[in-house]
Design the sequence.
């Protein structure tokens, strides 16, 4: 095969004349993690609210919550990012749109990526939160009512503390999905890990070295996340409760 | 940008659906069939008592599940010609077009996800049924093929289909290879005519309608299966 | 049964005709002969070199494509397979070199700069166009020199010599530009069109094509300063002298016979699809020189 291996390439100076290729890959990893973190916070907050709303007795609130989840689950993430990046600045008032477009990279890519990924993931979180709450015995919310708690109080003190613990295992895979999904942001110009590997491939033509490095980094991140989440699970677990089985795959 | 221009969508409908959507659907169907086939094999390997079968399968599934699909798409795009050359023993890379490359990528990637579903499906069948099969004189493949797998498929059908809807959405990522799938077609027109708002909104709408219609069908199917079982 | 007999006859014919060659075919020629197919890498938006003439078509047209079809004729004659099938595969700036290197495509007909760096990976045919690296910006943004771009956002296409130059120059001159890599030329141009980037650095002839086909050609200005010389050639696999000889002979004949002038006129001086615009770019002295004495050199100094 006419492929020339060169593993030393990582320590060569990259095109920008300052950093090695290895440094650029880790720079990309930094953006991957930062994007995932910010999007994760949005997803957790919005997803929790929507998830809770879907379990309330108010039928209209439930419908709106369901509609929200359906919209963000049934449009491909890539298309959602395009909507935030290309479409959103054009449909809002021109001055605001121009201001958004004039943002400096990487922020011009980072902000839409965080919003897009955050809301996309929030629909998945909402689904987990709903399943978590609904997996609790009905007696728990009745007990809350019997104690004279208001509905918000019942959620705050009875249902949610249990539900969050129950959904921790499925949330581990959501965290991993989120980190992997940040790679889609390369299509709107964010130089995260996959994009860094790709740019290294384009400049050095060392395709397989670049992709191997990125793959190894993703695997290590995966292991670290799983280890941390396991530790958290053990810390907060409630004896006698196991998580609900939420149907449906995902990446 | 001006007002919303429906005309640009109307003009390009043929291209969008006959070229773009046709590609997307073909890719989804082939990747789903291939992915379920290899996924089932992987699941059987993982559940095997032979370590030299279960370990590689486990490693493969874990590897695929820890890497982003986009990276896998890039990997295979450059790797498949080499693998092909190696398999055919021709000693030099073979030519693989964009479609073949994406089909192979999605089959290999989705196989890992389908295998997790099939593994749960196979494990949901009581071991006693397999032993009963052996007692009747069936071998491994006969008891798998006639007793376990048909039930596993049936139990897992809704989840397999849900995963296929996700696959349908994920095929949009071949955009990065400049392939004319549905999104690729929409973005080509969007860029050529400077009609980003119209084309991307329309693309989002089409993906939404198709996905939601499919998931509605899955829900109905789930109900029917649940009653029969 | 009949099919297998046909096949046997074909196999026989192949066996009989094989010794007809002066010497056994090797490398790419052998592969093309044995498979009966040549795979050509095409671009989808390199106007007017290799681009889709209308939506829905999956075969490109253009100056480079026409040249390559002449080369294909020469290959047909060389391997004595008149019915050679031509298969087109669309490549991007970022994928074209790996795809030639790994053998997916046999010949790339687009707008690829021939330089010494790339010659470590692939081989080039005789140069068929000479262009220069410039930028395009909106007239309203008032950009005159590189210095005006200090601290601004600029874009180029990933995998090109232009973005490589831009990245290096940015570091060398400490310009502090934010460089964005776009997937392809239309996407990069779109960044300027929608105001996300101030300037797009690319080969001037491609910029001219993009501006001419844009919605408002009058809004854009191509910079007056040329930053580098970019000779274009068709790419082919490296270290395959037999194949290179057929391709080089064919292109050299095409250039020296003057046949190339008709092709040049067709794509650069006359209206071209899809919108019937005319680029109106007369042949440069550099290109005239390169065509009179065909060269596949990757050294920019040769073209000055």
Sequence:
């Amino acid at each position: 095969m006419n492929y020339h291996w060169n593993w030393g390439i990582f320590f060569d100076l990259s095109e920008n004349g300052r950093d090695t290729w290895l440094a650029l890959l880790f720079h990309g990893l930094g953006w991957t993690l930062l994007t995932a973190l910010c999007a994760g916070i949005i997803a957790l907050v919005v997803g929790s609210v929507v998830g809770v709303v879907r379990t309330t007795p108010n039928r209209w609130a439930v419908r709106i919550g369901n509609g929200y989840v359906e919209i963000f689950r049934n449009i491909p993430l890539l298309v959602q990012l395009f909507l935030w990046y290309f479409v959103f600045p054009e449909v809002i008032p021109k001055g605001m749109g121009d201001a958004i477009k004039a943002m400096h990279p990487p922020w011009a890519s980072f902000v839409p990526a965080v919003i897009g990924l955050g809301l996309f993931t929030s629909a998945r979180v909402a689904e987990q939160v709903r399943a978590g709450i609904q997996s609790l015995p009905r007696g728990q919310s009745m007990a809350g009512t019997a104690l004279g708690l208001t509905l918000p109080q019942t959620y705050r003190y009875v249902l949610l503390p249990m539900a969050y613990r129950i959904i921790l295992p499925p949330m581990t895979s959501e965290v991993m999905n989120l980190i992997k999904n940040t790679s889609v942001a390369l299509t709107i110009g964010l130089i995260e890990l996959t994009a860094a590997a790709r740019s290294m491939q384009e400049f050095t033509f060392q395709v397989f070295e670049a992709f191997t490095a990125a793959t190894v980094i993703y695997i290590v991140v995966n292991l670290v996340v799983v280890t941390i989440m396991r530790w958290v699970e053990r810390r907060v677990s409630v004896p006698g409760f196991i998580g609900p089985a939420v149907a449906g795959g995902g990446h | 940008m001006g007002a919303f221009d429906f005309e640009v969508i109307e003009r390009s409908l043929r291209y969008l659906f006959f070229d773009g959507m046709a590609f997307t659907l073909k890719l989804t169907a082939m990747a789903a069939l291939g992915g379920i086939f290899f996924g089932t094999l992987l699941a059987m390997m993982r559940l095997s008592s032979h370590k030299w079968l279960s370990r590689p399968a486990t490693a493969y599934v874990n590897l695929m599940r820890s890497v982003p699909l986009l990276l896998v798409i890039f990997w295979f795009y450059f790797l498949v010609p080499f693998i092909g050359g190696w398999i055919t023993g021709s000693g030099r890379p073979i030519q693989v077009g964009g479609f073949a490359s994406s089909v192979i990528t999605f089959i290999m990637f989705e196989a890992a996800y389908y295998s997790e579903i099939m593994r749960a499906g196979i494990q949901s069948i009581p071991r006693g049924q397999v032993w009963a099969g052996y007692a009747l004189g069936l071998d491994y493949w006969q008891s798998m093929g006639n007793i376990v797998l048909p039930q596993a498929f049936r139990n897992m059908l809704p989840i397999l289909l849900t995963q296929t809807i996700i696959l349908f959405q994920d095929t949009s990522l071949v955009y990065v290879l400049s392939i004319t799938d549905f999104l690729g077609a929409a973005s080509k027109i969007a860029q050529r005519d400077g009609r980003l708002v119209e084309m991307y909104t329309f693309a989002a709408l089409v993906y939404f309608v198709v996905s939601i219609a499919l998931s509605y069908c899955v829900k109905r199917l789930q109900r029917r299966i649940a009653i029969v079982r | 049964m009949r099919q297998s007999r046909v096949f046997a006859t074909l196999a026989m014919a192949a066996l009989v005709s094989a010794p007809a060659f002066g010497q056994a075919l090797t490398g790419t020629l052998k592969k093309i002969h044995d498979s009966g197919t040549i795979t050509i890498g095409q671009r989808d938006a390199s106007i007017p070199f290799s681009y889709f003439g209308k939506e829905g078509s999956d075969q490109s047209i253009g100056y480079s494509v026409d040249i390559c079809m002449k080369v294909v004729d020469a290959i047909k004659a060389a391997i004595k397979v008149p019915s050679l099938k031509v298969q087109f595969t669309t490549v991007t700036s970022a994928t074209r070199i790996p795809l030639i290197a790994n053998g997916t495509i046999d010949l790339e007909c687009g707008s690829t700069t021939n330089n010494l760096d790339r010659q470590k990976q692939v081989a080039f045919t005789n140069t068929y166009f000479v262009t220069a690296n410039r930028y395009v910006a909106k007239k309203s943004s008032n950009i005159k020199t590189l210095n005006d771009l200090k601290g601004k956002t600029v874009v180029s296409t990933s995998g090109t010599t232009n973005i490589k130059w831009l990245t290096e120059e940015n570091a060398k001159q400490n310009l502090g530009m934010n460089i964005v890599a776009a997937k392809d030329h239309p996407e990069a141009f779109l960044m300027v069109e929608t105001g996300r980037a101030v300037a797009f650095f690319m080969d001037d002839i491609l910029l001219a094509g993009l501006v001419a086909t844009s919605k408002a050609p009058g809004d854009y200005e191509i910079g007056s300063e040329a930053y580098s010389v970019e000779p274009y050639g068709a790419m082919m696999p490296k270290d395959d002298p037999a194949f290179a000889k057929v391709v080089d002979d064919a292109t050299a004949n095409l250039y020296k016979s003057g046949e190339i002038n008709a092709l040049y006129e067709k794509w650069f001086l006359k209206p071209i699809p899809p919108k019937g615009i005319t680029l109106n770019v007369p042949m440069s002295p550099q290109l005239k020189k390169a065509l009179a004495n065909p060269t596949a050199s990757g050294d920019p100094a040769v073209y000055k």
In short: Confidence is low (pLDDT under 50) at residues 243-249 of chain A.
